[in-house]
Amino acid sequence: MATERDLLDLLGQRYTKVREGTLADRYVRAEHVRRHLGYSRRQFVADFIALDKYPGGDGSGLAIHWHEVKVSRSDWLSELRQPEKSEAFTRFAHYHWLVVPTSGIVGVEELPPGWGMLVIHGLNDPRLRARIKAKRHEPEPLPLDLSINIASAAQRTGARELGRRDAPTAYVGTWDPKCSVCGAEGPCEWHQVRAWREKNER
User: Is the pLDDT of residue 3 over 80?
Assistant: First the structure.
C-alpha cells in the first residue's frame, strides 16, 4: 500500500516540468505548508502546494494547486469531519485536489464541489492521473504569512528532493545535457548525483 511519502514523491514528479530550451522549471513545489507563522496557535498544514509559473494560453496557468493526501478510508473520513482544515487553504487556491492511492478510498459523491482527484496509475512506472479533473476557482488574495510559509516549505522541499531524486535534465541551445538546477554539464555531481555516479563508475 502506498504511503504518504510515496504520494508526495509522485506529486513532485507530476509537478516537475522543465521548459524546452531553458533551465526553467514550470512549477514551485512545497510540501507540508503551515497555514500560520509561529507555533503558539492551532496549526493546519497543507500536504502539498504547487505554484504554476507558466501563464499559458488557455487560462490554466499562473495558478496555485492545493493538495490533500489521504492513504486510507479512515483518513479521508477524518478529513470530512473537520472541513475547517481544508478551508484554511482552499480559499486561497485556484485548484483543489484530493490525492489517493486508489479511487476506492473515497466515494465520488463525497468530494467537495469543484475538487479533483488524483489516483496512482500504472505498476512499473507509477504516475498520478486525474480521475476527476479539478475546476478552477477564483481565490482570495494570498496572505503574507502564508506566502512566507510557502516559500519556506519550498526551500525545504527543494533540499529534500535532491536526496530522493536527481534534478531534471535540460537542453539549452544544444543537445548536450545540462543540470536544470545550476546549468552545469550533465549529469551534475551536485544535483544529479545518481546519474553522475553511474556515468563515472562505468
Answer: yes
